[in-house]
Design goal:
Chain A is mainly alpha-helical. Chain A is about 55% helix and about 10% strand. Chain A has one domain. In chain A, strands 1-2 form a two-stranded antiparallel ribbon. Chain A is globular, with a radius of gyration of 15 Å. In chain B, about 60% of the residues lie in helices and about 15% in strands. Chain B is α/β, with parallel strands linked by helices. Among the domains of chain B are: about 190 residues, Rossmann fold (3-Layer(aba) Sandwich); about 100 residues, Helix Hairpins (Orthogonal Bundle), CATH 1.10.287. The mean pLDDT of chain B is about 85. Chain B is built from 19 helices and 14 strands. In chain B, the strands form three sheets. A six-stranded antiparallel beta sheet of chain B has the order 2-1-4-5-6-7. Chain B has a six-stranded mixed beta sheet with strand order 8-11-12-3-13-14. Chains A and B meet through helix 2, helix 4 and helix 6 of A and helix 10, helix 11, helix 13 and helix 14 of B.
Chain lengths: ~130, ~650
């Protein structure tokens, strides 16, 4: 007997607090678009092996899933790298983005985000 | 000629009255005056120039205006009289020459040469010499034209070195100056005057023969060429005058520009840095834009290490499943073989009946394989899932943008450091050029460049005119020759005159060449003599003079030495000057300002030993960097008859003190 497919959301977002941070990341010129920062945040959380909880309320929807992950590549990566259990993939996306965006804001406190170092750190984490 | 004493009053840095006594003993005829740069060594040389010839020279031989020669401190104290007096002996007579400049009564603050009244007085054996004879009298034993060789500025050595560069502008000017000194212009004037007489005679001839039957055509042609010649000559004269003026203007511009050269260089650097700053800003902007674009996909790079680990795991899983599948296939094949064997009563190859033992064994094996096959399940769905996941990871693991982002970050940091340095330098240069009108400097540079171009054009025009003049002269000579052969023309007085003037001009022209050759030979001999005494390279055979009076060193095999050190250049230049000085006048005193610039100790020694033997007195104006008074003067210590030092009282006032006798 096959399990009932989990219903995936079509719209995704962040907590309002992280939404403000996301806007700021764009305004300060760290990213060209908010969606770019959102994607990078998800990957950052995944790379660091974070298993985040639900974003704190109040929450806000920002993007359609098709905007953030048009080819479902992010979804597939999450599926490959995490135990997603009963939680829809794109709810994981939101949770990971929440953590990642906050981490990016922390790294932007010095003025510039050192992306080169972030990428190197991720290689070191996995012994490359 | 021998100098006895020099007194200066309020002349350049010498405030009040100062007197120097020159050595009189022929065996101790060297006088040394020490002085640091900017103290007044060249001013002493200028004091002699001014008292003898009424002019003092600044850099690039530019004449200094009178009001700038007056001591500034004395002027501030209201003392506006400047005087230089020299006492000397020549041809057994005692001379006392004074030149005095005093502010005119009605002038409050002199600001131009005309604000001074200059008086000159010369006494010979205590008797005043009449004003109009003063100059010729001085020129008898210290000709002004030769003065650059005995009132000698070390700065000029470099000019003489350019004599070797064929066709150089400076070389041409020095050649003219040398010929002036050696008397060639006298013959040139003679030739020019003969040419003027010839033209007059030819005009008269044209007039005389115009009405003689049969000569109309020739005279008409002669008249036409004469008119052309006159026109070319007027033209060339105007061009030469214009060229002279332009050269003076350019020299003034060069001097102005040299003074602000540091500012100009700083402005060039400032402009370069400003452009570079702009360029860096552009690079940073484009790199920033590229980085933003790359960041769109950078999330993949973040996941790649982890996905690669996952991919390795999946490959292992896939390999496990496929190995199991292989194993199962093999067992299935074996079971099928055994079944076939058991189903057949005889051997399919030889047709013999099967042994019972073998059948029993095959049955056992088949049973065991069937048990194993039942226990061995193959996860086909798992394989499909793993393969699909591997394929998906393959897409995610495609080459990323990380390396490019890293490279941009490194480049960006480098640009940031460069930008900081540039901004610091721009700030420093801004302070340096503040207060200078850099636009005016740029204007003067353009003006100078334009003047240079115009000079070139005029020189080309002069050359073209000269060619036309030569052609006209040739035509006129042909016509003159033709007329001389015609009996009707030969009878005319003006034809005879033309003949005489033509011969006269030829005599002068040939004499000029002969004199030049003689002079060159003379200078070459004397300069070679000096060179052999001065050079430390004894293998050199001597010097060879060229058309410009430049000297080549000849080695022991008679070949020219083409590569010469700066020191060798200076020795050659000094040899030339010595040769010229001795060709141009009788032995006399030589005053040398900073002559040892690039010479090593042995060459200095040779100069110090040689020059006192060819001069009546040798006055050396030197600084400590050129000659160390304790050690370098040792070879000529016994020849030094007087020694002075110029000391600074303040930047506008120097005094001269005697340091030994």
């Amino acid at each position: 007997m096959s399990a009932t497919p989990i219903a995936e959301p079509t719209m995704i977002g962040l907590s309002e607090k992280s939404h403000a941070i996301l806007k700021r990341l764009k305004e300060d010129g760290h990213f060209a678009e908010m969606a770019d920062a959102y994607r990078f945040g998800i990957a950052l959380a995944l790379a660091n092996g974070v298993i985040p909880g639900e974003p704190p309320p109040p929450r806000t929807t920002i993007f359609s899933v098709a905007t953030v992950d048009p080819d479902r590549e992010i979804g597939n990566a999450i599926r490959a790298l995490m135990e997603t259990g009963d939680v829809p993939i794109y709810r994981w996306v939101e949770r990971l983005a929440e953590w990642g965006v906050t981490e990016l804001a922390r790294r932007a406190q010095g003025g510039e985000i050192d992306f080169g170092t972030i990428l190197k750190e991720s290689e070191k984490l996995h012994g490359v | 000629m021998k100098l006895i004493s020099l007194s200066v009053e309020n002349f350049m840095p010498f405030k009040g009255e100062t007197t120097l006594s020159f050595p009189q003993d022929p065996t101790r005829n060297v006088m040394v005056v020490f002085g640091e740069n900017m103290r007044g060594k060249t001013s002493l040389l200028n004091a002699l120039r001014w008292v003898f010839y009424g002019k003092a020279l600044g850099r690039h031989l530019r004449e200094l205006p009178l009001h700038e020669m007056h001591n500034k401190e004395a002027a501030l104290e209201g003392s506006w009289t400047m005087e230089v007096r020299v006492q000397f002996e020549a041809d057994g007579h005692q001379y006392d020459l004074r030149r005095r400049a005093t502010k005119r009564h009605l002038v409050a603050q002199p600001s131009r040469p005309e604000d001074f009244e200059v008086t000159v007085g010369l006494q010979k054996d205590g008797m005043a010499v009449s004003g109009h004879i003063v100059e010729p009298e001085i020129n008898r034993f210290a000709p002004q034209q030769v003065s650059r060789f005995f009132l000698f500025d070390g700065e000029l050595l470099q000019e003489y070195e350019t004599l070797l560069i064929e066709g150089s502008e400076q070389g041409k000017r020095i050649k003219e100056a040398i010929e002036q000194v050696l008397g060639v212009p006298t013959l040139i004037h003679g030739r020019d005057e003969a040419a003027t007489l010839l033209r007059g005679a030819q005009k008269q001839q044209t007039k005389d023969l115009a009405h003689v039957a049969g000569l109309e055509n020739q005279t008409q042609r002669q008249g036409s060429w004469q008119t052309k010649l006159e026109s070319y000559e007027t033209d060339i004269q105007a061009l030469k005058t214009r060229l002279e003026k332009i050269k003076v203007d350019r020299a003034a511009l060069d001097d102005d520009l040299e003074k602000v050269d540091a500012v100009h260089q700083a402005k060039i650097r400032f402009d370069f840095l400003t452009n570079r700053r702009k360029e860096i800003a552009g690079l940073q902007k484009s790199q920033g834009d590229e980085r933003l674009t790359l960041l769109r996909d950078a999330w993949r790079d973040l996941l790649q290490p982890k996905l690669a680990v996952r991919q390795t795991f999946l490959y292992a899983e896939q390999s496990k499943i496929t190995s199991r599948m292989d194993e199962r296939s093999k067992l299935e094949a074996k079971a099928a073989d055994l079944k076939r064997f058991l189903d057949t009563a005889s051997c399919p190859t030889c047709g013999q009946a099967m042994q019972e033992e073998k059948r029993a064994k095959a049955g056992t094996d088949l049973g065991e394989i069937e048990v194993a096959l039942k226990a061995m399940s193959v996860d086909h769905r798992g394989l499909t899932r793993v393969s699909a996941e591997i394929q998906e990871l393959g897409r995610l693991l495609r080459p990323g943008v990380g390396p490019r982002i890293g490279a941009i970050d490194i480049e960006s940091r480098k640009l940031g450091v460069e930008l900081t340095k540039i901004e610091n330098e721009i700030e420093a240069i801004s302070k340096q050029i503040k207060g200078y009108d850099t636009a005016e400097i740029a204007r003067k540079r353009s003006l100078r460049d334009g003047t240079l171009r115009e000079e070139g054009q005029i020189e080309r025009n002069i050359a073209a005119d000269q060619k036309s003049i030569d052609e006209a002269k040739k035509e006129l000579a042909i016509i003159a020759k033709a007329l001389q052969n015609l009996p009707q023309a030969r009878a005319s007085r003006s034809t005879a005159m033309v003949q005489i003037c033509t011969s006269l001009e030829r005599v002068f022209s040939e004499s000029i060449e002969r004199l030049r050759g003689d002079l060159r030979r003379h200078v070459e001999e004397r300069a070679t003599e000096a060179f052999k005494r001065l050079t430390t390279q004894k293998a050199y055979a001597g010097l060879e003079i060229n058309q410009n009076y430049g000297l080549n060193i000849i080695d022991e095999r008679g070949g020219r030495v083409t590569v010469r050190s700066a020191g060798a250049e200076q020795i050659v230049a000094l040899s030339l000057i010595d040769g010229l000085a001795r060709t141009g006048r009788a032995a006399g005193p030589v005053v040398m300002d900073t002559p040892f610039g690039r010479l090593d100790l042995r060459h200095r020694d040779n100069i110090l030993r040689y020059l006192p033997t060819t001069t009546s007195q040798l006055v050396l104006l030197v600084h400590d960097g050129e000659i160390r008074r304790e050690t370098d003067l040792a070879p000529i210590a016994e020849r030094i008859g007087a020694s002075y030092e110029i000391k600074e009282v303040n930047p506008r006032h120097s005094k001269i003190v005697k340091v030994m006798s």
